[in-house]
Amino acid sequence: MKAELLSVGTELLLGEILNTDAKFLAEELSMLGISVYYQTVVGDNKKRLTDALELALSRADIVIASGGLGPTPDDLTKEVIAEAMGETLVLHEESMRAIEAYYQRVNREMPESNKKQAMLPEHGIVLANPNGTAPGCIIEKNGKTVIMLPGPPRELEPMFIDSVRPYLLQKSGKLLLSKNLRLFGIGESKLAEMLQDLIAKNENPTVAPYAETAGVRLRITASCRDASEGEELIRPVLEHIKSLVGAYIYSEEDKPLSQTVAECLIAKNITIAAAESCTGGMFSKMIVDYPGTSAIFSESVVTYSNEAKQKYLGVREETLARFGAVSRETATEMAQGIRRAAGSDIGVGITGIAGPDGGTAEKPVGLVYVGICFGEKTDVLELHLTGNREKVRYTACQNAFFRIYQHLCDC
Amino acid sequence: MKAELLSVGTELLLGEILNTDAKFLAEELSMLGISVYYQTVVGDNKKRLTDALELALSRADIVIASGGLGPTPDDLTKEVIAEAMGETLVLHEESMRAIEAYYQRVNREMPESNKKQAMLPEHGIVLANPNGTAPGCIIEKNGKTVIMLPGPPRELEPMFIDSVRPYLLQKSGKLLLSKNLRLFGIGESKLAEMLQDLIAKNENPTVAPYAETAGVRLRITASCRDASEGEELIRPVLEHIKSLVGAYIYSEEDKPLSQTVAECLIAKNITIAAAESCTGGMFSKMIVDYPGTSAIFSESVVTYSNEAKQKYLGVREETLARFGAVSRETATEMAQGIRRAAGSDIGVGITGIAGPDGGTAEKPVGLVYVGICFGEKTDVLELHLTGNREKVRYTACQNAFFRIYQHLCDC
């Protein structure tokens, strides 16, 4: 089965936004074993959109169009597709009610123009959009399938996963089963080197590494008739990988490191609190990202100034004066101080120089100390990180989470 | 002048990498006033690449191909383009020397296969690549221009800026100047409705709205001979827009809301501190995202539990018992409490139900109270937000920043 992607939007042609939708859809289709030979980006222009759609339909079985489902007159995707597929647009009552309900929820008056979004192809399969106002739609005709999805990634991605993936799975009859491992503390090229035999073999299942912002994802993909055959194929390869690089693997379920740690803390009923300087709340925010964390997380402090470090955490003036705010000693006292203040099992203290300014020869931008206090014992990581301010801070948090993960595995 | 982008690479079709090259090239071309009507992504396949190139040449004056200039046999871009343009590939001595020098610099032996990269179209304009081994090339023939660039962004971007942009500027002789306004508190469709005359006119300059996660961007684009003519064209349109929707505009420099607020706080030397419940540190993190905020931000607390709200902020037990943790009253006491604790000018308290669980009929998921205490006065926003946990929390922060922005404009 062949598919093509048709991304609609002048903002893409003008280079205002990155085409993350195309990457997402291409990756998902690849996992479903559906080949994509072309991706096309076209603007909100009737003639050119029609031409691009017809070309795509002449080459592929399935065309997935994204974008151009908005309420404004320059949103043309639905109209063009309906015309090309010989479909009439009719008012879809359920979608109309969903759009009205959406505006009620956000406490705003629905503009007249939004009614256009409830006009849908008469014989289409409507895809609900709980995250926005534009419903998606699938049209099947003459052996071709066109799937329309809204452009914003927060709407497109859940709609694909909840509605389109099950539809395509049923259609293709074959299954690609993937297992995504997440690793930390090893680079992509080092990992590829350590697993070169497995990667080069390119048998069923295949093994491929992907670099992430901090860490690596390793994907094992089996082509199979059903899930249980797929699992049988994957199991020995997974065991082999674990025997080689098991120490770096923190998730076999493709879960982010922070989520893995949060869930593990909840499962073991171990409480945590953080004192953050350069990360400014990022570490705590990453814990609260997951529902249910109130069981193990009650408080944190952002102590950006020296005064705040003293006031909330009892970091000693002498420590700050002698070793500086960015030091092993301050990180230790921050971790111990927040653990004491919060009465938690684990205390985390993060202090560093995120840049772009503030670095010196002795303490350059990218130097971060992470103190982690587990009861009597306090570990301090000294990190020398690269990248911009955001990346330094994010990588510091990831290092903290990985050290906690290692600790949780031991206890 | 019309251009098309042709991105070559199976890794794009598989969704392994984001097409940042297309965004970069599209944005650059747009600024040069060169229209891009289509972008196509195609794999390393001779037949399909040839078809895509011929189609692009039939529609555009200039085709910019990126990727597929590597040394391996599956890199076909140059061969396919040369054939389509009737060009022979010949050894380009200077490029050969540059590739050899590159390998000397990185202290590695040059693989035999790299010689392929020095084979270039006989009548092409060769573009040097100081950041890699693949030279770029421009071929002009029969009124059409094909430009080949290497795929890796750190090679493509400098090559475009140093060699291709000057070439295209000379060719086109015109410029597009854009101004991006950022708005909050108004939806894309409402904005489009209020500015429909301006948008529909589609004159020079053009006006177009784009939805963001929370807020809208409005772009004014003038086609002009030079920057000062562009500014003259944009000025009256900007004034007109400000007279209609000025109250929603927070940036005329395309800056994020949190950055606008952070910079404004620094400029006015007004200090801020936050007490966060459902946002879990996100608001504080967004302030610390910008360098230089230590002048106006020294501390925040994440008070996820009721106990933490009492301990750090002095929220009264009676308030929590009578009105609940998610209430106007608690948000008020949180804002006042953190302002008192931090001794800051502004105190922010955020408490809400981010979901997916924890909602009730009376207090549904998405209900968030934001208290903002400016000296004697405390404002409370009652927000009814939609979307997932992450979106609810992000939109709550954006609402807090916008209210602070409004306050800062008044003082």
Give your account of this protein's structure.
- 2 copies of one chain form a homodimer.
- The first copy, chain A, is an alpha/beta fold and about 400 residues long.
- Chain A has helices spanning about 10-15, 20-30, 45-60, 75-85, 95-105, 155-170, 190-195, 195-200, 225-245, 255-270, 280-290, 305-315, 315-325, 330-340, 390-410, and strands spanning about 1-10, 35-40, 60-65, 90, 120, 125, 135-140, 145-150, 175-185, 205-210, 215-225, 250, 270-275, 295-305, 345-350, 365-375, 375-385.
- In chain A, the strands form 4 sheets. Chain A has a 6-stranded mixed sheet with strand order 2-1-3-8-7-6, sandwiched between helices. The first copy, chain A, has a 5-stranded mixed sheet with strand order 14-13-15-16-17, with helices on both faces.
- Chain A is built from 15 helices and 17 strands.
- Helices cover about 40% and strands about 25% of the residues of chain A.
- In chain A, helix 3 packs across helix 4 and helix 10 (about 255-270) runs parallel beside helix 15.
- Chains A and B meet through helix 1, helix 2, strand 2, helix 3 and helix 11 of A and helix 2, strand 2, helix 3, helix 7 and strand 10 of B.
Offer a concise description of the structure.
The structure is a homodimer of 411-residue chains. In chain A, strands 2-1-3-8-7-6 form a six-stranded mixed beta sheet, sandwiched between helices. The first copy, chain A, is built from 15 helices and 17 strands.
